[in-house]
Amino acid sequence: MRRILQGLRRLVFGQPIATDALTPVTLRTRLALPVFGAGMLSAVAYAPDAVVDALRRGSQQGAIPYMAVGVVSIMLLLGFAYRSNVRARPDNLGDYGTVRDLLGRRYGVVTGAALLVDYLFTVAVSVAAVTQLVAYLIPQLRPWVGLIGVGLIGVMTLVGLRVVRDRARVLLAVWFGFLLVVAVMLVYGVARHAAEASSPIAANPPTTWTIVLAYAGAIASGAVMVTGIEHLASAAPNHAEPRARRAGRTLLIAVSASAAAFLTVSLLAWSYRITGWADGPILLQTAEQVFRQPVTIWVVAVAAAAILYAAATAVFRRFSILASSLARDAYLPRQLSMTNDRLVVRGGILTVAVASAVMVVATGANVETLIHMYVVGAFAAIVLSQVAMVRHCTERLQLATEPGDRRRLARDRVLHGTAAVVAAGVWIIVAVFNFLNGAWLAIVMIIGLVALMHAINRHYAAVRGDVTLERKDRNVALPSATHGVVLVAQLHRPAMRALAYAKAARHSSLEAVGVQIEADAARELQRQWGKIDSGVPLVILDSPYRDLVRPVLDYVASIHRSSPRDVVVVYVPEYIVGRWWERFLHNKATKRLRSQLLGLDSVVVSAVPWHLESARDRRAAEEVPPPGEQLP
């Protein structure tokens, strides 16, 4: 059975990968674009919906072009700012590294927490958007969108744990395929619109508050187009040399392509008088108006679903990398920095899978609800990153002597300062106007995660101070004596093996200890013990409340109290089982006793294994190769 399970595991997750087989992955711009740019481009599948819906509430659909241009302007500004990030610090591994190194660990933790929350919402929004595409094409599946989303996350988790290599070319087809679909839709849309001479939506005469609410809501919602920029900026180490220049080029191309696609879908929706996602995703509504052919609508839906899937799977890896960095800095459990036999940080992948699945189920895979929570984390990290780069430019400017370097640094400082102010403005708009719609939850998650990470860091610092070797510890005094205690429930082979181990250790004193639950059983144990003539005294402990653990604890503690400088070694026989269900039948009291004994000072617990027949059979089956396989 064990071999079958092992084979299934290898079939699903793949063969183990040796550490020395891991080679750094370097990509040229053509392949780096889809691998790291899928997150930003995928937002085209839902960002226009958010903008149009926000304007519709204020009856300002006629302002779609202006809001789209405003969102694109923010994208381009931050694109140039992050290109400067990459060129200045190509090895920073993202906003967390930049902020930690330039502003300090306190702000770095805030950035890390904000990004982790952002990644969770990226997966949830992407998956929810895919389910909306499915529900639009197959309305009968609408009641099951939550279950479909969870299933999709499960598939992504398996793919992430398996580590599908050489996927860059597949992503290349997905990325450029989606761009091609949008480009064709633009050409057909412009041609059909010109031929039919339909009029776009006109804006209604607004009041001042209507303008403020509608436009602010549109900017807050459209800002989701920028959320993938950090992933692009953190990809410099994965580029071929010259890394900084190639990474900067990749970033600008990805931002420009995503901005063009977003602008295309938004303007087509405006031209064809599409007023919101109440009737379905705007991308598919637009495709339906432009092509008017069911097959082409399916093509657009498949292309959109593929880019959304690519974006979500990329986040699994990025979340694991960031969580691993935070764990190495002692802000998350150390387990999140450890890779398995496939060189995968399994803890990070499972964490993002479970958390995003909970979000999808809790919101009913509602994209609109999730978007209101989405932007908070991304823009918090962007603001801190740009402030950090302002400090970086200022420090470098103070040291620079060449006029050309000073002009470049001064220009970059203005760029980063402007980007920081704009990003802070967007964050405030999002936090204020979307607060009651769900932004509060993202803020609470970030604050809670920051508090948790600081608590973890304090714990690790306390443990480090407790276990660090000091000069006074280098000449540790040996215990004056060691006392051996062998636990004997009944006289059988496991007990005799434990007694043999204890005798071999040559303790200063050695005794066997049993607990009297029933008087007849205790007398029988004493009688049998006298027959074997082991030379080791047997002590029977009375247990008036029929507890096996407390009498032993009290007895061992009394030995320590009488000789505080001595060490007590307790030998506990333990069964090793071969079948999973046997674990529920054995060792329960033994494990409870062992865990409590370990809490006593100067007490060492030695588990003496006894392999049951099922365990011996399993070991023999593992050691003997199957027919046809050569012995080593």
Automatic annotation (TrEMBL):
The chain crosses the membrane at residues 31-51, 63-82, 115-138, 144-164, 171-191, 211-229, 250-275, 295-316, 343-365, 371-393, 414-433, 439-456. Pfam families: AA_permease_2 (PF13520). Keywords: DNA-binding, Membrane, Transmembrane, Transmembrane helix. Its main location: membrane. It is a multi-pass membrane protein. InterPro entries: AA/rel_permease1, APC_K+_Transporter. The keyword Nucleotide-binding does not apply. The keyword Membrane applies. One of its GO terms (molecular function) is DNA binding. It is found in: Membrane. This is DNA-binding protein. It comes from Demequina activiva.
